Amino acid sequence: MTAHAVVVLDKAGWHTTKELEIPKNLTLLELPPYSPQLNPTEHLWDWIRRYHLSNRTYEGYEEIVNACCESWLDLIADKNRLRSMCWFPWIKEAET
User: Fold this and answer.
1) 23 and 54 assigned to the same domain
2) What's this model's pTM, rounded to 2 decimal places?
3) Bridge partners, residue 6, by sequence
């Protein structure tokens, strides 16, 4: 049995192309225009920017990447915070 996944997209220009071949076990779910409140990723980026990346200067690319990795690890360390930021009624948790 092959697993099936759903990818939520916000219709940004870089998320759309006619050249993309979508595997049969993948469904693309496009959000309505101008609806960032429905996209869990928006909440994650807001938190990362607010608590880790804003009001700083970086010496170079590697320092930016390291700051992003550190902020991501901090974010996912607290599963309750992560769940509260990303849970929407239309998202069901996968059974593990």
Assistant:
1) no
2) 0.57
3) 27
